[in-house]
Design brief:
Layout: E1 2-7, E2 10-13, E3 18-26, E4 28-38, E5 46-51, E6 57-59, E7 67-72, E8 77-82, E9 91-103, E10 106-113, E11 117-122
Parallel strand pairs: 2-11
Antiparallel strand pairs: 1-3, 3-8, 4-5, 4-9, 5-6, 7-8, 9-10, 9-11
């Protein structure tokens, strides 16, 4: 069983910063890509940022230049540093990870999601 647990959400004023963390735990053999997504009304979850196991990053257009994703492979943790926050960044943020579980002779790869963490930016 694998769990992703997010933390770091909260209330901040416009222009402020927050740092989200997401820790993966359980029967993990290895972790490939990790990322952050957020809830968007009327749409599927919107890409915020992703990071490969090698450190290659991608960002959604609305957060480029303001958010930075990073990861600590030794801690199975991904971070999202959010600067210059805007009221339109207010929503629930979800962590996602593509994880190999099992043993070397019997691996399966699945995407896992965290429970979400609320970010609220006041104007």
């Amino acid at each position: 069983q694998v769990q992703l647990v997010e933390s770091g959400g909260g209330l901040v004023q416009a222009g402020g910063s927050l740092r989200l963390s997401c820790v993966a735990s359980g029967n993990i053999f290895s972790i490939n890509g990790m990322g952050w997504y957020r809830r968007v009304p009327g749409k599927q979850r919107e890409l915020v940022a992703t990071i490969s196991s090698g450190g290659t990053t991608t960002y959604g257009d609305s957060v480029k230049g303001r958010f930075t994703i990073s990861r600590d492979n030794a801690k199975n943790t991904v971070y999202l540093q959010m600067n210059s926050l805007k009221p339109e960044d207010t929503t629930v943020y979800y962590c996602n990870a593509h994880i190999a579980v099992g043993t070397m002779s019997r691996l399966s790869y699945e995407h896992y999601w965290g429970q979400g963490t609320q970010v609220t930016v006041s104007s």
